[in-house]
From TrEMBL:
Source organism (scientific name): Candidatus Nomurabacteria bacterium RIFCSPHIGHO2_02_FULL_42_24
Coiled-coil regions, chain positions: none
GO molecular function: glutamate dehydrogenase (NAD+) activity; nucleotide binding
Name the record gives this protein: Glutamate dehydrogenase
Positions of the Glutamate/phenylalanine/leucine/valine/L-tryptophan dehydrogenase C-terminal domain: 180-406
Amino acid sequence: MPNVFENALRQLERANQVKKFPEDFLTLLHQPQREVRAHIPVRMDDGTLRVFEGYRVEYNNARGPYKGGIRFHPETDINEVKALAFWMTLKCAVANLPMGGGKGGITVDPKKLSKTELEKLARGWMRAFADILGPRKDVPAPDVNTTPEIMVWMVDEYAKITGDKSGAVITGKPLDKGGSEGRGPATGLGGFYVFDKLRAYYELPEKCAVVVHGFGNVGLNAAESFERAGHKIIGVADSRGAIRKIDGIKVAELIEHKNKTGSVVGFAGSESITHAENIISECDILIPAALENQITAQNASQIKAKFILELANGPITPEADDILFERGIPVVPDILANSGGVTVSTFEWEQNLKGEHWGEKEVLEKLKKIMETEAQNVFTKSQELKTDLRRAAFILALERIQTATEL
Ligand code: NAD
């Protein structure tokens, strides 16, 4: 597998080929401002002691406090967390939020832990990093395999350590614990708003056939948003496999099936296919919504989608980007397409700091406005510079970070 942090830096260099940024500024952006590792001991249910490796990377805070989720995954390592923290820096700038970029994680398969073990681990992560976190310093959130419940354990641990009960140190909390309305669907729905703004510029059918690769928080909410707007979901994958149903998958029924069986596989009336087949399915829109490096030089030439909306972080390698560009398949980059999540996270942080609670309508209207404005800004930049949407989004973000850095 390509090293994702190297991929991220190559994306930076490729953007710099289109618009030159000062050497010193690029030198600063080639590594995080701070990366911290911790060894987190957990007494397991059987009495044994296990030590897990945890991370927090604070990439850049020129525009505001570090912001970025915490990933629990067996393949998470420092390189992945660095890449994700770098992308968060750019993402917050693309969405024009008053935030910098960071990311955290633990190398663990949370599905193999009991609930008690998971809670001890989550609290252990917070104890390890509490001194560098804070509402005005570094504000984590959920990511792959971390849930609102895990955020509650963490925010509770932070309150015990510091006495700060504002909740503003962590976003993605449940509503009754200071969470924001609209945070659940924010990433998938925000991605839909971006697509809907840009679709007029591309020759896409009125009603699109959509394939979603990944059916967690992001994939599921994206599928619901596209279905609600009249598009048809024809393929879905999760970690256990993939399904295809050309006449359309009813998303609510698929959620019910997944809740019952633990997977999308075996959904009534669907055909079972492989992950690889799902990615190269015949469709109008492909939505990668799982992990990194799903579209590489190996499969990019076989992609049949007319348009790709990157809701996962880093699902396409730079080599695959070139192949897709040559083939005329537009890619809406992650740092724009999935920025709805951090946007509503930032609303949550703002509400916690002010002691307010905004209604769902207000939150979603604000989200839509930001997504549409920045989708337009990225598209306009791509036209001005005659480049793809990824380079355009990078350049827009880099200009904003550069200004903040110089100021
Ligand atoms: P999640 O844990 O809720 O869901 C991940 C999904 O991917 C699950 O359905 C899982 O079964 C599936 N999956 C895992 N490995 C797979 C594989 N090899 N092939 C196909 N499917 C696979 O995570 P999430 O929060 O939905 O995040 C998904 C992606 O979106 C990640 O890249 C994450 O960094 C990014 N993202 C998430 C948010 C957010 O608000 N949650 C915001 C921005 C970006």
